[in-house]
Amino acid sequence: MCGGFLFSLLPMQKGDKKIITAWSFYDWANSVYALVITSAIFPIFYENVTEKDLGGIVELFGRKFGSTEIYSYAISLSFLIISVVSPALSGIADYAGKKKRFMQFFCYLGALSCASLYFFDTAHIALGLLSVVLASVGFSGSLVFYNAFLPEIAEPKDQDKVSARGFSMGYIGSSILLILNLVMIQVFDIDVRWCFVTVAIWWIGFAQIPFFILPNNVYGRKTEGNLIFKGFKELAQVFKEIRTLPRLKRFLSSFFVYSMGVQTIMLMAVLFAKKEIVGLEDSDLIISILLIQFVGVIGAYAFSKLSSAIGNIKAIGIALFIWILICVGTYLFVYTPVHFYIVAASVGMVMGGIQSLSRSTYSKLLPDETQDHASYFSFYDMSEKVGIVIGTFLFGYIEGFTGSMRASILALIAYFLVGFILLLTIPKSNNVK
Predict the structure, then answer these.
(1) What would the pLDDT profile of 250-265 be if each residue is shown by its tens digit?
(2) This prediction's pTM
């Protein structure tokens, strides 16, 4: 650990390949949560046990909810928590130069909460859902500070490529663990709950690479006075600056709306398929998710190349148009496993692309002179998380109101359409096209 401490004190040069590689490994580390816990094994496990033990009805707080409905509310709550907490913490992190410390805290919170899902029990479902909430808070919280390193480690001209590299490593690493989990379950007949423990081990283990290499205090800041007060002051200053930056402000507005659709699909796709696709087995779901992962690698790099040719804003616009077509097609035509595979491949291509480009585009739009990257990225993260709160809540509410998850797709179409229109209002510039 002494070597890591000494390395973190050395001046950091943008474009350093060792630092960029180390940074990318946090995507490799944490993406297993996004795949195994939110997209693949846990949602299937959750739907199966709640259907078997509770008949698909969960009773909490004196009310009865559909199992997927209450799950979407739990996810909404987690993002509401992080959207409230992360801006304040990011201000403190910027002022004190402690981005990596906060990143570590949320990493360990998320990973240990994943491990606690081993004890998920429908007899104590409130505790199980609490673990779901805390795991989500840990994952999302760590990403605020992780993303904030991007403008510090890479020049603007390289940020699309570096961001794509991170997402690609995440897709590959998480797919490897998912395959290992499937071998554990199918070949060695190991209890599926151990998969949640492997997520924690993988996440914490590989996170040590960026924790060892990334610097603690990029700008050598010294803390004086009340840390909380200074942190809020730092955050307020960044908020004032954002209001004077029309391109950044307009992009955040568009991102806020279209991320409702992107993130809701990531979180609810498996539960939608379980309920709405006739004849789809659990093994089919896993295959479709792996398909999304591997196509996502291609998509991240393809959209990075596209952005270098036509500009970031236009590339994101193309991705949003494709999202609209996917949602319309799913609502009207997708009822069989073959149809779902086609949709999965299409989703994979634009999922990696829009996530990677959104992060790098926001990074490019930041003022060149700023050192408050965590504070700036907290507004990016808050836009995304509040969007997810609204998106997942409405997804669950529409299902509860109509009795069909398919009707919720109409809201997703609206998110992408409005996000696309808002994207068109961003003023043109030679810096970020």
Answers:
(1) 999 999 999 989 988 8
(2) 0.80
